[in-house]
Specification:
The complex is a heterodimer of chains A (113) and B (114).
Chain A lengths: L3 E4 L2 E4 L5 E7 L5 E8 L3 E10 L2 E4 L7 E6 L2 E6 L8 E8 L8 E2 L3 E5 L1
Parallel strand pairs in A: 2-11
Antiparallel strand pairs in A: 1-3, 3-8, 4-5, 4-9, 5-6, 7-8, 9-10, 9-11
Chain B lengths: L3 E4 L2 E5 L4 E7 L5 E7 L5 E8 L4 E4 L2 E6 L4 E6 L8 E12 L2 E6 L3 E6 L1
Parallel strand pairs in B: 2-11
Antiparallel strand pairs in B: 1-3, 3-8, 4-5, 4-9, 6-7, 7-8, 9-10, 9-11
The chains are: A mainly beta (113), B mainly beta (114).
Chain lengths: 113, 114
């Protein structure tokens, strides 16, 4: 089984709809991240959490919110989706104790019509 | 703005040749990491080099770091068609206290032709 899983893997929705993307990890890591990837722009950090009670805005947090329900779960919400939020979304984890490498999930491809 | 910038944006070589990708960054870093991404899939960590290191090897990968020039290079030797992917550098900086975060570049698309 994959260590970092994301659901759904693909989603098509309409402008104005509320969308939640979920991330779960079995690695026991304390840190979790949400990134967005657009063609030609690389990865940009949306939100990150260094433990359950810690939530931090990243480079492009406007229009997004997150919830760290447990150490293993980190959800990203789009309260009112808009077309320019069409992108590939990645969740990642890392651990303060073991070093600086991030482990990525397989991604969620979101299309907002 | 992007902390790390890869160069070139795209690179096409023949199988067996070496591939070199470069990364430049702007501010002081704790470490620099290289990741690989196959089309539409998650990133996979390749190698990490710390700010006090100058060169590191892992299999066919060789990474160098020049902190005076704020640049790094990734060399893949004896390339294979399976090396075809996008390669990203990521710089880790101090975001406050003991917490750090990574900032990714835009990537180099490597195509290895059989």
């Amino acid at each position: 089984d994959a260590d970092v899983t994301q659901t759904p893997r693909n989603r098509i929705t309409k402008t104005g709809k509320r969308i939640m993307l979920e991330c779960s990890q079995t690695k026991g890591h304390d840190r979790m991240y949400w990134y967005r990837q657009d063609p030609g722009l690389g990865l940009r950090l949306i939100y990150y959490s260094f433990d359950v009670k810690d939530i931090n805005k990243g480079e492009i947090s406007d229009g997004y919110s997150v919830s760290r329900q447990a150490q293993a779960k980190f959800s990203l919400s789009l309260e009112s989706a808009i077309p320019n939020q069409t992108a590939l979304y990645f969740c990642a984890t890392s651990d303060q104790r073991t070093g600086d490498t991030q482990y990525f999930g397989p991604g969620t491809r979101l299309t907002v019509l | 703005s992007q902390q790390g910038e890869e160069d070139p944006q795209a690179l096409s070589i023949q199988e067996g040749e070496n591939a070199t990708m470069n990364c430049s960054y702007k501010t002081s870093i704790n470490n620099l990491q290289w990741y690989r991404q196959n089309s539409g899939r998650g990133l996979v960590h390749l190698i990490l080099i710390r700010s006090n290191e100058r060169e590191k090897h892992s299999g066919r990968l060789r990474v160098t770091l020049d902190t005076s020039k704020k640049s790094s290079s990734l060399l893949i030797t004896a390339s294979r068609a399976a090396d075809t992917a996008s390669y990203f550098c990521a710089t880790e900086i101090n975001s406050g206290g003991s917490n750090y975060k990574l900032t990714f570049g835009k990537g180099t698309l490597l195509t290895v032709n059989p």
